[in-house]
Amino acid sequence: MAKTVRDIQEFIRQQGVKMVDFRMVDIDGKLRHVTIPASRFCEDTVKSGIGFDASNYGYAMLEKSDMVFIPDLDTAMLDPFCETPTLSIGGNAMVIDDPENKPLDQYPRNLTIAAENYMKSTGIADEMLVLPELEFYLFDEVNWKVSDDAIAVSMDTEHAHWNSGTNGTGMIVPKQGNYHITQPYDDTYDCRSEMCLHMEDAGIAVKYHHPEVGAAGQFEVEPKFGSMPAMADAVLNMKYIIRNTAFKYGKTATFMPKPVFGEAGSGMHIHMILRKDGHTIFSDDGGDAHLSQEAHYFMGGLLEHIGSLCAITNPSTNSFKRLVPGYEAPVTVGYATGNRSAVIRIPAYAKSPEVRRFEIRNPDATCNPYYAMAALLMAGLDGIKRKIDPRDRGWGPFSVNLFNLPAEEQAKLEHLPTSLEQALDCLEKDHDYLLEGGVFPEHLIRNFIARKREECREISTVPNPIEFEKYYNA
User: Fold this and answer.
1) Which three-class secondary structure string do you get for 313-347?
2) What is the DSSP code (8-state) at residue 284?
3) 141, 252 in Cβ contact below 8 A?
């Protein structure tokens, strides 16, 4: 869009904008906002910023918690969900200092910039392109209760298989049979098309949208490749658009990794390409799977640190209810071409040299996308620096469905953590690679681990309905 204050002011005048909404990000990767009248937007707004209390965003403050938010004018977009004409602008958080403010090192957008700068300083590459596949469920309704007298959750989708006796139209999707299903079963098609049009208006190029496997209303929207900092922004904007458009259509959207027992979970597979001087360094016509040695080293770094990465890319207790065999989610440490049972997959359809790549399949959208993408980059760069070849470690390439191996063969494989607690243990032991170049500050990692351990403790104290089924009459 525009890059100067004067351009923004002119856009405000032309579009009749009444409010300017500044969007900030907390430690969990959730959007927060503060709004000013458009008439107040001026040069000083961009120079001096908007004050806020960073401690309320979950950051562990070593300095004073009073911060300023500095708008990034390149992120400006009209908000289609506000009745009052509103221009939304993202940006970065700064620590108030003298004579000049300095970036808050824990702030997610600042951290992706730091990771990108570190990558450039190594000379390995100057750009990481990423493509996140966003999976989610759309329900007609969802209800939950956690109290002294009730622990319960229910959700419903009209076309779900459990409504075959009450639907009345016969338009029922078989269990795990939603993949690419057409109308009239696909009754949220127009809703999703509207989501994608809003994304395009927001500058997020969309590759496609489609129904996913889960018959209770699972779908996917996939954007096109973009630079890491921009795509981390895009993930939050896509989630915002999906939720608000769903609400407009009387639906509710969730990115929870495993909201429905017995159906496919929702992930956020992330495709990655490193480029230098405008060209990929991952392609090699003579290499295994047409990938370069650097690409293999990068995969080696991801696999070397996959346990600790899971704490950042899968930071919910629910994440590990998705990472189980039988639902297309990866559980095995390794890589394969066109095989979805390994944590890293090399897409067989990516034949053009400039798009040859791999995807990591364990992440989900409960993550803070800035931290997740930066951590993946740091792990991959560590693999290149240390020349960690996955073939030397027995991590592939795997050519068989790893879920179908006999038990004795399964026992020889390495697996992802099976709980958030295990992943946090891994992060506690293995995070030096994140500290390189000062990208991840140590106090952020300590604070993140402490917050997540408290979250695990809290959830572990609440009885689960299945415990009544197993133990009520014990």
Assistant:
1) HCCCCCHHHHCCCCCCCCCEEEEEECCCCEEEEEC
2) -
3) yes
Q: Of all helices (H) and strands (E), which one includes residue 432? A: helix 432-435
Q: How many residues does the chain have?
A: 474
Q: Is 22 helix (H, G, I), strand (E, B) or coil?
A: strand
Cα 228 to chain centroid, rounded:
12
Instruction: Give the C-alpha separation, 474 to 471, whole Å.
Output: 5
According to DSSP, the residues that pair with 24 across neighbouring strands are: 32
Distance CA 45, CA 41 (A): 6
C-alpha distance from residue 282 to each of 118, 171, 197, 294, 295 (Å): 19, 46, 32, 6, 5
Within a 10 A sphere around the Cβ of 459, how many other Cβ atoms?
14
pTM above 0.90, yes or no: yes
Residue 443 gets which letter from DSSP? H
Residues designated as active site: 53, 133, 135, 212, 220, 269, 340, 359, 361
DSSP secondary-structure letter at 98?
A: S
Cβ neighbours of residue 420 closer than 8 Å, sequence gap 6 or more: 311, 314, 315, 316, 317, 319, 320, 452, 455, 456
pLDDT tens string 446-455 = 999 999 999 9
What CA–CA distance (Å, rounded) separates 411 from 471?
30
Indicate the angle between helix axes 306-313 and 293-304, nearest 10 degrees.
70
pLDDT tens track for 12-37: 999 999 999 999 999 999 999 999 99
Region of 125 (left: φ > 0; alpha: ψ -120 to 50; beta: rest) is beta
If you ran DSSP here, which 8-state letter would residue 418 be given? S
Which secondary-structure segment (H or E) carries 453?
helix 442-460
Closest CA to 57 of 448, 458, 363, 376: 448
Cβ contact 310:423 at 8 Å? yes
Q: How far is CA 338 from the centre of its chain?
A: 22
62-74 residue pLDDT tens: 666 678 999 999 9
The number of CA neighbours under 13 Å toward the Cβ of 451 is 17
Is the bond preceding 397 in cis, omega lying within 30 degrees of 0? yes
DSSP string covering 350-405, please? --SGGG--EEE----TTS-HHHHHHHHHHHHHHHHHHT--TTTTT-----S-GGGS
Q: Where are the alpha helices (DSSP H) in 16-138?
A: 43-48, 108-122
CA distance 188 to 183: 9
